Amino acid sequence: MKEKNMIDLKAYSNLGSNNCEKTFFKKICHSIKELAFIGSLNGSVSGAIAAILAAYGYIALPGFGPIIARGISIAFFAGTIMGAIIGSIMGILVGTFCVFIRDLYISR
Fold this sequence. Notes:
Layout: H1 9-12, H2 19-55, H3 65-70, H4 72-106
Helix pairs in contact: 2-4
């Protein structure tokens, strides 16, 4: 039987619960998913435009020559995929940085 003035340490203890970590990872995951999606869309459009310009000889992309030699359709597809991958990686990095900066200033 508990007395009225006793504090239930299980309810207020952070030792047994991962509530703080779970909310932090949920915030990071939500922000990263959104920015990675935006980065992927931006990267895929930019990659497709760069692949078309490289295939027609308007710009030079290092290492893209063997892909261009296969044809415009392969170059377009490869440029879109590479742009999406690079864009999503940059979106993840920017998202992680923004979450840490936001938490740094909010915690003060």
